[in-house]
């Protein structure tokens, strides 16, 4: 294939957007590990009414040949990222492509031109569309399906990116815990030792009766705990409300924990059952049949995803993160999930890595953020 064989076309209407969203079904046809996203959720993500759209803009692009889609990409500018990180960096995301360097090059080049024309001096990604959502390119662990709200891609994407001049910026790790290989008595001793060392540190479950209040506590801790982390962007009230609305029906109160120091909330951990094991059977749709499948396959979930954990900066290195991981794992086993993925953890976040490794966690997947100057 040569560059003359295809053309690029911007997404301009709902029909184009549906084609953009449905394209991955072509890339992953026959792949037993890919989990189809819910089409309705993806449509919402690109809606001008979505909370992210209120402080960001996206440029959606398709590569086509004779009307057939060969690839897609999004250019993204997040004004909150620009303000908080104080750097003129744009994102690329939602990348999917056939295994063809020319198609990938044309897509990325057009996005870079778009970003450059808006004053950006650097591009990083993939972000779908930010670090508060799915992000990173899977570079190992391709023979395992992704957990809830984690990305998946073919192995050849890394070679495409590197051929285009993109370089590693940051790696994100996923850790695996399995009750069958973790001695319960040792975990109990770790918990007792930490609580003896820090008697003011207590763990409680989420109170669903006061969900909005609990949500604000989690948001405040999250924005304090993560503010110095690479790539961090504070979540707005609207973004938090939107995420909570999506996840609330899936929440089991015992799987969401808040740590207090005396009366002060200082840390939290949010875990969900891995509903990707259900979504795998829905093929992107949740009608009446999909709902019946959802109810049926939900009973078969045996894995937890520990998806958010934050400790206020003043209370880090006092054992809260380990106690929260232990509580999440204990409650996961109690709720029929003896296995758990803890993701994602920045490669430079040694505190979290050591905490997980100290209770038997094994690093088993890596996601890479790439970038280059414009």
Please describe the structure with a list of short key phrases separated by commas or semicolons.
alpha+beta; 374 residues; 13 helices; two-stranded antiparallel sheet; 13-stranded mixed sheet; Aminopeptidase; 2 domains
State the end-to-end CA separation: 27 Å
Under the CATH scheme, the architecture of the largest domain is 3-Layer(aba) Sandwich
Give the helix proportion (percent range): 25-40%
CATH homologous superfamily identity of the largest domain = Gcn5-related N-acetyltransferase (GNAT)
Number of DSSP strands?
15
Mean pLDDT level: 92
Overall 3D shape: globular
Oligomer: single chain
**Total domain modules:** 2
Question: Nearest-angstrom radius of gyration?
Answer: 21 Å
Task: Profile the largest sheet.
Answer: 13 strands, mixed
Instruction: Classify the beta-strand content into a percent band.
Output: 25-35%
Derived from helix and strand composition plus strand pairing, the structural class reads: alpha+beta
CATH topology name of the largest domain, in short, is: Aminopeptidase
Can you describe this structure?
The protein is of the alpha+beta class and 374 residues long. It folds into two domains: 3-171, Gcn5-related N-acetyltransferase (GNAT) (Aminopeptidase, 3-Layer(aba) Sandwich); 176-367, Gcn5-related N-acetyltransferase (GNAT) (Aminopeptidase, 3-Layer(aba) Sandwich), CATH 3.40.630.30. It contains 13 helices and 15 strands. Helix 7 runs antiparallel to helix 12. The longest helix is centred in the N-terminal third of the chain and has 16 residues, at 101-116. The two termini are 27 Å apart. The mean pLDDT is 92.
């Amino acid at each position: 294939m040569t560059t003359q064989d295809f053309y690029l076309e911007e997404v301009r209407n709902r029909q184009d957007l549906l084609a953009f969203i449905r394209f991955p079904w072509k890339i992953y046809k026959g792949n037993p590990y890919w989990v189809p996203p819910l089409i309705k959720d993806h449509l919402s993500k690109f809606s001008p009414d979505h909370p992210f759209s209120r402080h960001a803009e996206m440029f959606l692009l398709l590569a086509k040949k004779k009307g057939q889609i060969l690839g897609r990409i999004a250019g993204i500018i997040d004004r909150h990222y620009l303000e908080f990180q104080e750097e003129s960096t744009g994102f690329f995301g939602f990348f999917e492509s056939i295994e063809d360097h020319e198609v990938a090059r044309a897509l990325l080049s057009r996005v870079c031109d778009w970003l450059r024309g808006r004053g950006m001096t650097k591009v990083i990604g993939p972000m779908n569309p930010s670090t508060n959502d799915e992000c990173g390119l899977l570079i190992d662990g391709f023979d395992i399906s992704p957990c809830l709200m984690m990305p998946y891609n073919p192995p050849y994407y890394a070679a495409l990116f590197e051929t285009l001049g993109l370089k590693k910026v940051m790696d994100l790790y996923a850790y695996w815990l399995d009750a069958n290989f973790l001695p319960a008595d040792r975990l109990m001793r770790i918990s007792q030792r930490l609580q003896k060392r820090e008697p003011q540190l207590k763990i409680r479950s989420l109170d669903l009766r006061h969900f909005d209040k609990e949500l604000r506590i989690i948001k405040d801790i999250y924005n304090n705990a993560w503010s110095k982390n690479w790539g961090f962007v504070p979540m707005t009230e609207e973004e938090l409300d939107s995420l909570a609305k999506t996840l609330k029906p899936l929440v089991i109160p015992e799987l969401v924990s808040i740590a207090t120091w005396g009366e002060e909330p200082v840390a939290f951990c949010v875990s969900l059952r891995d509903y990707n094991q259900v979504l795998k059977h829905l093929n992107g749709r949740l009608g009446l049949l999909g709902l019946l499948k959802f109810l049926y396959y939900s009973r078969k979930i045996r894995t937890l995803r520990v998806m958010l954990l934050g400790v206020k900066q003043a209370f880090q290195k006092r054992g809260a993160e380990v106690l929260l991981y232990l509580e999440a794992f204990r409650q996961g086993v109690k709720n029929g999930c003896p296995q758990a993925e803890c993701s994602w953890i920045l490669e430079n976040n040694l505190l979290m890595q050591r905490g997980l490794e100290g209770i038997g966690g094994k690093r088993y997947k890596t996601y890479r953020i790439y970038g280059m100057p414009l």
